[in-house]
Amino acid sequence: MKKYFLPSLRLTVVLLVLLCVIYPLFIAAVAKMAPGGGDGVTVTYKGKVVGYENIGQGFKSDKYFQPRPSAVGYNAAGSGASNKGPTNPDYLKSVQAAIDTFMVNNPGVNKADVPAELVTASGSGLDPDLSPEGARIQVKRIARLRHISEQDLMKLIDEHTDGPLLGLLGPAKVNVLKLNIALDEIKTN
Length: 189
Known about the structure:
Low-confidence stretches: none
Number of strands: 5
Oligomer: single chain
Mean pLDDT: 88
Distance between the termini: 79 Å
Shape: elongated
Order of helices and strands: HEEHEHHHEEH
Strand content: 5-15%
Structural class: mainly alpha
């Protein structure tokens, strides 16, 4: 037993220092070099911080593009998913309720055309982005409520669509907060 105690103690101390001191300091240093200095990239509108670039938020008015639903009520302190599987009756009820709400607010849209992202929460519950299709399906509603042409809204979506990383990795996406800020700019011009 004595033969293994000292090496085990040394290994424990080395791993504690490595994993509890050096690794967290390294990660903190890398975060400080990232955009926003590890504190998140704020989005400012008319001199006021209105949100964060990488944290989704809800919009109450139908005059705005709606983001993905959030399992945590868009609370960044409580990021997480619903943890309900695709056959869970409660989950199916919440998805059906989201579909029904979407259909009421977006008349004329075919139910089969509603992207899954608009009726299901992301894994974090805080996804700030939509696919371009998820934004485009909302154009008729916003055009009607804001009296803006559908073509202008489609152009706005195209201008705010970020393509895949390096043209290959990941899907195209639209940041909903930035898109809604640009939408408000159209109204004020």
